[in-house]
Design goal:
Elements (H helix, E strand, L loop, with lengths): L18 E7 L10 H10 L3 E7 L9 E8 L3 E2 L2 E2 L6 E2 L6 E7 L2 E6 L5 E6 L4 E4 L4 E6 L5 E8 L4 E2 L1 H6 L3 E6 L2 E6 L8
The structure holds 6-O-phosphono-alpha-D-mannopyranose and zinc ion.
Length: about 190
């Protein structure tokens, strides 16, 4: 492989040489929101774009470091903020780092045993996802929340566990403030 450089625009999250890796709309992640009535009501109006990911085409194998930017748009479904699907790594002992670039949000983490943490993210904050922790990012602000992520090339994404179990905690807007509450659907199969 040849070494390479890329330009990352901190304001938009776009990496000049990178492709758009994915775009997720509400219909792609309806099982992720706790308030199913709010999901269905929102989908009768439109199908909002929740987040986009830009990344470079690197081999997904041991020894590589993959990286991408994520742009989560502002909004809520019911009172739950727009967020990523969230995942464990398929190889559970693989870690990840995030760097906040624009906007504000939270990194929500959880273990299989039901432990949960929420870390505030904003420009210049680096957060660390240790091995064995599932992770999801959430936009709690009024502008796009943008961050850079880097993780081992062989980590892989396990979405199915989160799709069926959910996270132990939810971040919701209460009195205009981001508030962490217990997830009433945790471990209840969707
Ligand atoms: C971060 C990284 C990516 C991930 C993306 C979107 O940028 O963790 O690996 O794909 O967020 O999150 P998700 O895959 O959970 O939808
Ligand atoms: Zn990850």
């Amino acid at each position: 492989m040849e070494p390479f450089a890329a330009a990352l625009d901190f304001k938009t999250g776009i990496i000049d040489s990178a492709q758009q890796r994915l775009q997720r709309r509400l219909s792609d992640m309806r099982a992720m929101y706790a308030d199913r009535d709010a999901v269905e009501a929102a989908l009768t109006r439109d199908n909002p774009l929740i987040y986009e990911v830009y990344g470079t085409d690197l081999p997904e194998r041991e020894g590589q470091v993959l990286y991408c930017t994520t742009i989560i748009y502002p909004g809520t479904i019911g009172d739950e903020y727009y967020m990523t699907k969230g995942h464990f790594h398929a190889l559970r002992d693989r870690a990840e780092i995030y760097l906040g670039l624009a906007g504000e949000g939270y990194l929500l983490l959880a273990t299989d045993a039901g432990d949960a943490r929420a870390l505030k993210m904003e420009p210049g904050i680096v957060t660390y996802v240790p091995p064995y922790w599932a992770h999801r990012t959430i936009n709690c602000g009024d502008v796009p929340f943008i961050f850079l992520a880097a993780w081992p090339g062989d980590a892989g994404h396990d979405y199915a566990t989160i799709e069926t179990m959910g996270f132990p905690k939810l971040l919701v807007r209460r009195g205009g403030q981001p508030t962490l509450i217990d997830n009433p659907r945790y471990r209840v199969s969707s």
